[in-house]
Design a protein that fits this description.
Length: 116
């Protein structure tokens, strides 16, 4: 994922804290903190970004931290500085050396959308 265009994009900047829910049709980039639910087509969590809550997305790139749950209907990339704690549901995953996934991990298969 890249941020070449700002169309349908929300950036939560470093030092910004959002409490509550975010729903976006495009990309959400989190460099600050989100406490609550987040729904987006694509999600980028920067190295200083943190999400505490329930995340639903198609594609996620995690360089920071997500706690509680992440549901990614297509793919998740946990980069070397990334950390996911809690429940992770995914169809495709890549974890770089140093990246951490801790908790319940559920593979979503094509036929039912649930682990198999």
């Amino acid at each position: 994922m890249d941020m070449k265009t700002t169309k349908d994009c929300l950036i939560v900047g470093q030092g910004v804290v959002i409490t509550g829910g975010i729903k976006a049709s495009g990309t959400v980039q989190v460099e600050g903190t989100v406490d609550g639910t987040l729904e987006a087509d694509e999600l980028i969590v920067g190295s200083l970004g943190q999400i505490n809550g329930t995340v639903t997305t198609r594609v996620a790139e995690v360089r920071g931290k997500i706690t509680e749950s992440l549901y990614a209907s297509e793919r998740v990339a946990v980069m070397s500085t990334g950390r996911i704690e809690g429940r992770l549901s995914y169809k495709s995953i890549a974890v770089e050396h140093g990246g951490v996934v801790e908790g319940t991990v559920i593979f979503l298969n094509d036929s039912s959308g649930h682990g198999g």
